[in-house]
């Protein structure tokens, strides 16, 4: 719980989201936006907005209940920012 609190306080949401996506160790992640938000201690709307931006950049593909990773290298660069 303390680690989550420190992450929420000191890490940008895009960095935390990238880390969670990459930690799933699968090209297709079967988590809803709400489940990701709960994992990150954020609101679903915030996660959805960032995932949409990641999709616009070509890093992920979004479908109902799944996130497909398309560019793990780009996500890795975001995850390493902090």
UniProtKB/TrEMBL annotation:
What is the protein name stated in its UniProt record? HTH crp-type domain-containing protein
Pfam families, per the entry: HTH_Crp_2
Entry's Gene Ontology BP terms: regulation of DNA-templated transcription
List, for all copies, the residue spans of the domain called HTH crp-type: 11-73
Q: What GO MF terms are annotated?
A: DNA binding
């Amino acid at each position: 719980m303390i680690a989550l609190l420190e992450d929420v306080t000191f890490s940008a949401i895009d960095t935390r989201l990238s880390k969670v996506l990459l930690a799933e160790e699968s090209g297709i992640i079967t988590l809803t936006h709400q489940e990701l938000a709960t994992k990150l201690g954020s609101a679903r709307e915030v996660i959805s907005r960032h995932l949409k931006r990641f999709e616009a950049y070509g890093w992920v593909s979004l479908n109902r209940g799944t996130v497909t990773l398309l560019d793990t290298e780009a996500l890795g660069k975001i995850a390493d920012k902090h």
